[in-house]
Amino acid sequence: MCRQARALGCTNHGECRRAAQATFSAISSFWDPTKNPGTPHRNLTLTEEEKEQNLKAITNGGTVTFDPSLLSRDDLKSEFRVFAKTDELPPQHVTLDVPEQNAEETHDPEDELLVVISSAAEREGDNDSKVSSATWYEENSPKNRTMILGPAPTASAFGAEVDALLHLVQEADPRLPLTIIISFSSLVRDLTTELQHNEDLNWLGNPHRRDLREITAHLRARMSRTSFRSENGPHTSPQKSLADALAKQTLEGTVAPSEQTPRRIAPLALVPRGARLQKTTQKVLYRMIMQLEPVPPRTATQYKLEMIRETMQDISGRAYSDDSLWRSLTRQHYPVKILNFIWKARHDAYKIGRYWRHIPDCDLREACHVCRAEESMDHILTECQATGQAQIWQMAEEMWTTRGLPWVRPTLGLVLGSNLTNFRSSKNVPLTGANRFFTILISESAYLIWKLRCEWKIEHGGDPDRIPSPEKIRRMWFHALSRRLKLDCLMTDRSKYGSRAIQTSLVDRTWWIVLQNKESLPPDWFRSRLSGVLVGSGTARPPGRNR
Q1: How many CA atoms lie less than 13 Å away from 175 in the CB half-sphere?
Q2: Count of C-beta atoms within a 10 Å radius of residue 82
Q3: Are 298 and 343 in contact (CB under 8 A)?
Q4: What is the mean pLDDT of each run of 10 residues along the chain (547 residues)?
Q5: What class is the 49-282 domain?
Q6: Strand 113-122 and strand 226-230: pairing?
Q7: In the 3-class helix/strand/coil scheme, how is 52-70 assigned residue by residue?
Q8: Where are the domains of the chain?
């Protein structure tokens, strides 16, 4: 090539060689064939059959193998990525501190590493949450490692295992096959069968995205196969039981945490940056924009959260973190209409009270027409004389006392956090049925008060002569609770609702004590047409035309 160039009149002899040398020197040592002749992914990319086996293993709780390959599409348009932040750019030179390996070198299968990661938590989800993790190789091994996180609102058992996993993949010999047992099946899915999806969306919404990207990079840099298995509950392997005990001892303070070791630089060149544009939607892009510039907390919202936290701490002794308070708002606890009501009330989003103070010609709407006080949500739900709140809370107290548990005086903080109460038996066992019934009782009562207020204030213009009568309030209250009872009974049909169905035992524990004429009900009363008869609601109407 050089002779041909000279024959054509080239006078810059050797410049081509020096330019090629400069180009090679700019390549990361991991990709430079002159410095790293071994191919780390040699025979490690999973076949289609192995991927199918992974999917079956995820379902059956088996061992799942990590696929280190970086998938790319045939066409260029599928490779465009967005939101690749500059602070996540991989370094130009990444040094992988791994032992030398001959291309033909093999290892005895007995050299395979089996490592177990476990965690223990104390008051998880509270402001003073404390968690520990344990990385267990074998009994009395100097490699065994323990760690403590917290007290902090963000400390979680899942986060502790992610942190322990990151240290493990940094320190483990990359030449040896590695099997890792962890507690969370969701973490196994994130790093195996759902890895492609997570990387396509740049780990959107995952609070541990930075650590998981580093873990993925280290796993791809390994020269041997890596496998995962999740184990949790009473039926675990002996190694997992020993790791669980070590994590618990660390949390209790009988075992000191290991000395912290500095992290190795992650080979971020092995993980894609940003989200694959072809896989995004308008909703995903909006969430990514919001993630770049988080909305500052609203003062009114923070005030409501602090109110809920103090109320729940007085009742159950737990100081819930902000994250726990928001995650508690699920359809598992509330119907959609009540969920929306509580969410808006927590944000102080309703146009009541002081909202009208500075709007021309609307200042009269600030005060309650009957009580002559500012019409706040607290006033509407616990003080107002026109919403029927006193009668509704009195009926709620009478029904609750049939369970033999102390009544808690309703406050705004209790209403907005009613699903966080934690009544327990004399043996300190959570009363699941009682807690669920209390959530239903408080939320349905509060929502009815709000409905009555809106009907009186909006439809009837706040006319003092149109305040709902006690009989109407009583009828509407029993109708709301009977409707929830009927809905619970219908939701026990597993053939119709599948995994969304409610367990019959949970419905029984929730409603049985407050049912009328229990001695005449069949064992499967929740399938009876007369199942919706509550204590104090009167005689059930007979079915048919003669009711």
Answers
A1: 14
A2: 13
A3: no
A4: 74 76 66 51 78 89 89 72 65 43 48 90 83 91 88 86 92 91 93 92 89 92 92 85 91 86 75 89 90 84 93 87 86 87 94 89 85 92 92 95 91 93 87 92 96 91 88 94 89 85 88 81 69 56 45
A5: alpha beta
A6: unpaired
A7: HHHHHHHHHCCCEECCCCC
A8: 49-282, 309-468
